[in-house]
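Board notes (copied after class):
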Amino acid sequence: MPDPRYDRLAQTLVHHSTRIQPGDRVLIEAFDIPDDMVVALMRTVRHAGGSPMITVKHQRLLREIICAGDEGLMQIVGEYEAFRMKKVQAYIALRGNHNIMEMSDVPDEAMRLYQKHWLKPVHFDIRVPQTRWVVLRWPLPSMAQQAGMSTEAFETFFFDVCTLDYGRMEQAMIPLKTLMERTNQVHIAGPGTDLRFNITNIPAVGCSGESNIPDGECFTAPVRDSVEGVIQFNTPTLYHGTTFTDIRLRFEQGKIVEATANRTEKLNTILDTDEGARYIGEFSIAFNPYITTPMLDILFDEKIAGSFHFTPGQAYEEADNGNRSAVHWDMVMVQTPEYGGGTLAFDDKIIRRDGRFIIPELEGLNPEHLKGV
């Protein structure tokens, strides 16, 4: 018997996240997830008047394609995927993964070819700016292990987080978006961190379940050459199957001039992918009240209440600072007391201290308000 939570999640994805309209063509991309969820999603799309197109993929098979390092094949597959993406109005991706380390031994050059010919042109150049899209993970046992939870407990957590009242969140973030768009200078301070940059005249974009599930962030981008100082990230990050910890970046005139981590050489190899990989393409403030600890899954970790993320690489066109790269790597810093605390200041006024918003117009983004308690 199908899980009734599948229908509830499908309703959120179709009616809130992508707002499917009659006549929309919708590409549903399913990685290692139950057929019953795909069926629920297809039926919900059709009920809204859309036409679902389905592609079923498996992470292990994708790894094998990438590992071949065949540039000609990457070009052909990228062209095919780009052609299809151009034909749809909406994209829904449900991405399960039986092994979070599946891509950890893909050769660097093979991964570069995949990013150049497939990932960037299809997703960054077409899907993100030209479709209504939403991406979410699927709660397989591997995710429960990442979170340090039983499979049953994690599934309950997952569906609670993914179907919370995003309408309430949407209203609560309006003052933050407004404030970010009239701010010039940002100053972030915390253990090992003293970072300044400018966000003048770059739009802020609030995210409340439209593009990611789970959600809860408001992002912009620094003026490309304005970042100065140092940041010491306090959460692990998983990038194409490799786990990095203790990442420390030092900036001069916007560029990462020094980068260290537990895997310093591999970190710098990624940052040398292209010129834009050493500049920042996104700065985002997060506030999902149900997500409080990192679990090595960026769609969850970048939404941790009391955190922000700073992103080497490609900028989003909605909040564009002109930076272009095959890399888009969200690195997360949590500023709650358990992680050492810290402050976030706009134009020399502290707006968040130790992970809590402290000015009246932003208090609605603190956990107790977003949970409705």
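Comment from the instructor: The first helix runs from residue 4 to 17. The longest strand covers residues 25-31.
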